[in-house]
Amino acid sequence: MSTIAILSALPQEQGSLVSALQHAEKITHAGRTFWRGTLHGHAVVLALSGIGKVAAATTTTALIECFGARRIVFTGVAGGLGANVQVGDVVVAQDYLQHDMDASPIVERWLVPGYPQIRMACDPALTEALLAATRFTVERDSSQIDWPSLGMEARHVPQVHAGLIASGDRFVSTAGESAVLRASLESAGHAVLAVEMEGAAVAQVCADYGVAFAAVRTVSDRADDGAHLDFLQFVETVAARYADHVVHAFLKSL
Ligand code: ADE
Q1: Does residue 194 contact residue 166 with C-beta atoms inside 8 Å?
Q2: Rounded distance, CA 130 to CA 132, Å?
Q3: What's the whole-number average pLDDT of the chain?
Q4: Is the CB of 219 within 6 Å of ligand 1?
Q5: What are the backbone dihedrals phi and psi of residue 101, each rounded to the nearest 5 degrees, phi first?
Q6: Percentage of the chain exceeding pLDDT 90
Q7: For residue 46, with 0-12 CB atoms within 10 Å meaning exposed, 13-18 middle and 19 or more buried, which class applies?
Q8: Mutation test of ligand 1: which of 221, 224, 225 has the most ligand atoms closer than 8 Å to its C-beta?
Q9: Of 95, 196, 198, 221, which residue is the catalytic one?
Q10: Which of 77, 81, 232 most suits a substitution to test ligand 1, by most atoms within 8 Å of the C-beta?
Q11: How far apart are CA 2 and CA 240, in angstroms?
């Protein structure tokens, strides 16, 4: 039985998965905590990615080298960049790029030198299963969420998107920066849905090792300087709930 790693960006997303783990074993390695056990009959290992690309790459390497992970699923939050990607929506990654990679005197902008293409693809079968679990969860859970308590419309109907996510070592929090990011990527044919800080690094390590990778991100902000929701309340009320329920539905479906 090959091990499936569940990587969480935030501790709030991991909490109830750890509680649900059977035969749980806690292991400390590389300054990180890993939880090994079984969930829905699958051998799993749970870890927090750490924030930023280097931390996430180290965690991913440990998951593969030390815990034998052959499939990795990542949950977290992201800033919405696509025109119709709104707070409360969920994005399932089909591929990733690093928006802050620029060795353009040597190679094309955004290309990681030594790799064949700018966009690193997620595993199609794992992504299909994650997308189905995400659609099921969002449809079931969204009517149970108290959106007005988060400053959102009561009739808010969250959408599930699938496509390109960009990662970089920067929290994008001005309208100017997100407009430049979106426009420069789109003009090069990369229609980007969301931005976060880790996924492309995990995709790159998984590509190096031939490990299957899929990722889902709940949109917590519009990557701009508009009024931000209470981030912690959003994570606890929406993102952590989605992450937990998506992972359970996903594992049950395998
Ligand atoms: N994660 C959640 N929102 C983000 C943003 N605006 N930029 C980068 N990472 C994020």
Answers
A1: yes
A2: 5
A3: 96
A4: no
A5: -85, 120
A6: 90
A7: buried
A8: 221
A9: 221
A10: 77
A11: 26
Q: Tell me how far apart the alpha carbons of residues 212 and 127 are, in angstroms, rounded to a whole number.
A: 9
Do 37 and 25 form a contact (C-beta atoms < 8 A)?
A: yes
Query: Which numeric CATH code is attached to 3-253?
Result: 3.40.50.1580
The model carries a pTM of 0.97
How far apart CA 135 and CA 247 sit, in angstroms, is 12
For 170, which DSSP code? S
pLDDT, tens only, 197-249:
999 999 999 999 999 999 999 999 999 987 566 888 999 999 999 999 999 99
Q: How far apart are CA 11 and CA 13, in angstroms?
A: 5
**Average pLDDT of span 155-180:** 95
The region of weakest confidence among 84-88, 153-157, 203-207 is 153-157
Nearest to 58 by CA among 215, 198, 164, 169: 198
Q: Which residues of 190-221 are buried (b: 16+ CB within 10 A; e: fewer)?
A: bebbbbbbbbbbbbbbbbeeebbbbbbbbbbb
Domain borders along the chain are: 3-253
* Residue range 139-150, pLDDT digits in tens: 999 989 999 888
At 67 the pLDDT is 98
